[in-house]
Design brief:
The complex is a heterodimer of chains A (161) and B (155). Chain A is α+β, with helices and mostly antiparallel strands and 161 residues long. Helices cover 24% and strands 34% of the residues of chain A. Chain A has four helices and eight strands. A six-stranded antiparallel beta sheet of chain A has the order 1-2-6-7-8-5. Chain A is globular, with a radius of gyration of 16 Å. Chain A starts with a helix and ends in a 19-residue tail after the last strand. Chain B has 155 residues and is an alpha+beta fold. Helix content of chain B is 21%, strand content 35%. Chain B contains four helices and eight strands; from the N terminus they run αααββββαββββ. In chain B, strands 1-2-6-7-8-5 form a six-stranded antiparallel beta sheet. In chain B, strands 3-4 form a two-stranded antiparallel ribbon. In chain B, strand 3 and strand 4 form a beta hairpin. The longest helix of chain B has 19 residues. The chains are: A alpha+beta (161), B alpha+beta (155). The interface between A and B is large, with 39 and 45 residues. Strand 5 of chain A pairs antiparallel with strand 5 of chain B.
Amino acid sequence: MGLRDRLRQGGSPEDWDALAARVPYGRFLGIGIVPEGGGRFHTRLAFDEKLIGNTVLPALHGGVIGAFLETTAMFQVLVDAESEHLPKPVTLTVAYLRSAGPRDTYARATITKQGRRVVSVRVDAWQEDAEKPVATAQGQFLLAADTSGEAVEPPHSTRSR
Amino acid sequence: MSGPRALDLVGDDLQLLVSHVPHARAIGMSVVDARPGHIWLRVPWADFLVGNPETGVIHGGVITTLLDNGGGAAVMTALDELRAVATLDLRIDYMKPATPGRDIVGYCHCHKVTRHIAFVRGTAFHETPDDPIATAAMTFMVGASRTLPGLVRGA
């Protein structure tokens, strides 16, 4: 049984660590995965001085928040979608809602539309209170083409089968 | 009554525009050139910046960081005086994967400043902005807090 199938069935802590370890820049930032049972998870960005963008406030770098949201979305797509490969980000829109202070940050992704080639994902990041997100993002990810030969489905087509 | 402009303050040492940002230092970011409202930054390829080890392609988040940092710096150089700048919204479109082993340049242009908001377009590329790796549209809050940018302190 492959890693993704094990994760979908709950996964061991080592399985989730193996998923987190697949993205070197995510590892450099300090992104870990917190399993919630039943194949669900959220991510944790452990605070480190090197993540700071504004030393005066201080606040985490906006780019780091963007990278954290994008990585969290990629993990969610990898677990949910029918591809063993990391998806390719196509576009990501991040709204910065509050200054992210010098502490741990968490994020959770939700698949809003699972297409055959493109997956739409929403991601929310928070620090001390999940009801007060520091940032939220919506992204589109292209699945790696390991089901070649199939026609690309236009985003808004109404398939009749 | 207005204080110094960012570019007057840093003088010939353009690196001061990003060297006060810890995460910019952490990924090896440097300033290639800057003039009012425009900035060119560079990030050298490094294995710890990779997003997908199967391909060796740099993580999209590194490009987000490059363009977000460039956006904030472009706004600072466009303002008549130093003011706090904070990212409000950022949309990034990835057009082609960055080539493994090559530096990435980010060019940002602050094309409009209003009383509270600054608007920036950014492009990441290897050789020329006509062949982009990614483009971004960003908005920044100007004067979001009473603090001044860290470059004042040379922090």
